[in-house]
Amino acid sequence: MKHYILFCLVLLAPFVQAQHSPLLTDMEIRILESELSGETAKRNLEYLTRLHRMRGSSDFRKAIDFITSKLEAYQLESVEKFQLPADGKTMFGTQKSRLAWEAESAELWEVVQQNGQWVHTSRLADWEAMPITLAEDSESGDVTAALVDVGAGTSEADYAGKDVRGKLVLTSSGPEPVVPLAITRFGAAGIVSYTQNQKTAWWKEDENLIRWGHLGSFSPVNTFCFMVSLKQARDFQQRMARGQAVTLHARVKATRRIGQYDFVTAVIKGTDPQLSQQEIVFTCHLDHQRPGANDNASGSVTILEVARTLQRLIAEGRLPRPARTIRFIWGPEIEGSLAVLTQRPELARRIVADIHMDMVGGGPVTKSLFHVSRSPKSLPSFVSDVGESFGQLVNEQSDLYASGMPHAFEFVSPEGGREPLQAVIGKFSMGSDHDVYSEGSFGIPAVYMHDWPDRYIHTNFDLPANIDPTKLKRAGFIGAASGYFIAAMKDAHVAGLWQVLRSQSLRRSAEAIQRATQVDPVEAAILKRSYVVYERAAFETIAKFAAISPVIRSEAAGFYASMEQSLGVQTKPTTRTGGKIYVRNQQVKGPVSVFGYDYLEDHNPASATLALPQFQGLWGSDYAYEVLNWVDGKRTSIDIRNEVSAEFGPIQQQLVDVYLSALEQAGLVILKTER
């Protein structure tokens, strides 16, 4: 072990220098830092948050038009708007397109009878004032009826002794799970939901929050749901408990219809005739409820600010134009990304890295913690290490600045905060469009920037006032620096990149050693071997972008050999004999569950009872996503089980086997052979 430590110290010696990043010069960093504007990003955000940006809606198109106008004003190249079908039928890989949804008006009133007529006494919800009060995919209706509290409303016991036919039901659940019993079985006329936000430490702390609700996009049942606060629901419940009847008038004009998904894209073209055919893409999702400031106006305007900054710096000659092309895409969340990659396969083939931003501006009041996350373990790549390196730079420099210590860079906006970033670096996280890019069908490595937790996500309090311009600038810098470095990467950059990779590898080595102590010796051996294989594979991805010199190859060989010796890793696989080998069905691309649609459940109804998607390991729970990603026609089901166990924690072989069998029955994978 002491020889390994000494070897590592020698390798890390080049870091003790005046240059603050092995990837960009201090001058390049300063140029980016000085041009990026958190204030410009926030001004653009303030416009977007005035729009209820639902898929296929007029407000979403206004948002697309706004982004387009800015791209043209910033003189981006090849600005293009395009549309893809949102018709409820077209398949984009594993995603069935959803019908467009548009609401015209919606109001919820409390009413009382006076002289034989219903009189409005209190307006509880108004689409014009706060569109989040109408659940997405609600349909038109006009009902005056009593309110009945059904609790969760998802089991028959919730309706025992209650007559809800023709009435409105009050539920603590989200709208969609209530429909089968409340609407279809027992004949309720509509839903009023006070479902609470995603669970965090601040869950239910603010009773004034109104949650963004969703009805089923593909449900044959036409109904509506109004969303109310916990405070309003408690008022209803207290009054009804005293025997007081609550009668409401719900009026909705809304519909699902055949429409279009809207997109806009633009590029900064690369200079090299061949390398310019490779593209580094910046992605976000433009849709969400009004105001939707952090989720995800923040990501949308930050990549817009990156586009403005890089285009201006390159046009003015302050930064050289990179060899590769940089592309920017705005569209609907997840379903939009899968639609683009499947309908434009030539674009998917050109993209070599994804810089994704989803919630990157939360200020202190949101209680958010910023993350710079890496690709899944099934997709080794140096790309993740590039993002992590710049994230660490901002962490270190912002901490020095906030602490009053000597520093080289501030990464602060005049109208923003001055606290250190303290980003979480190097974890794999799911939940946004990068899931599609990094999925095994496309294999595009990603840097994913996001805030979590955020106590106001998907609520009426996700406001521009909670967005910090400094945070926007810092996210913009990490993204711009990462994307620019990868786009400009040549042979001369490999030495600096190798410094970054071995530094990050040492950090992951420490994590692997720590995790190995939490499992039995057999699992520990699997984990450590998987870790070393990953590190070697990540290093080899450099060769796809630039030539690795014999000197660096020799250093790398010694580094990884010392690592294997220190960890006691066996060169031969530790897997047992046997197991099935599957290949991906290349005719169906994308992850199993996308947005509002589950391909596996639709093609194999028995999959609803599968345990794997809900399994929680020691270090994660995204087993289902990675099991499909590891299917490559080479690994056995036992190999796959070992890989996901090394990533998330030990799991039973049977759960993996049953899940792979379900994927086969749904036509997502094909059995190749059985050992």
Descriptive notes:
This protein has about 675 residues and is of the alpha/beta class. The protein contains 19 helices and 19 strands. Helix 10 runs antiparallel to helix 12. It is globular, with a radius of gyration of 26 Å. Residues about 10-15 have low confidence and may be disordered.
Query: How is the CATH topology of the largest domain named?
Result: Aminopeptidase
Question: Which architecture of the largest domain does the CATH hierarchy give at level 2?
Answer: 3-Layer(aba) Sandwich
Terminus-to-terminus distance: 38 Å
CATH uppermost class of the largest domain = Alpha Beta
Category by helix and strand content:
alpha/beta
The percent of residues in helical segments reads 25-40%
Residue stretches low in confidence (pLDDT < 50, at least 5 long) are: 9-17
* Overall radius of gyration: 26 Å
CATH superfamily of the largest domain: Zn peptidases
Q: Give the amount of beta strand, in percent.
A: 15-25%
- Total number of β-strand segments? 19
Shape: globular
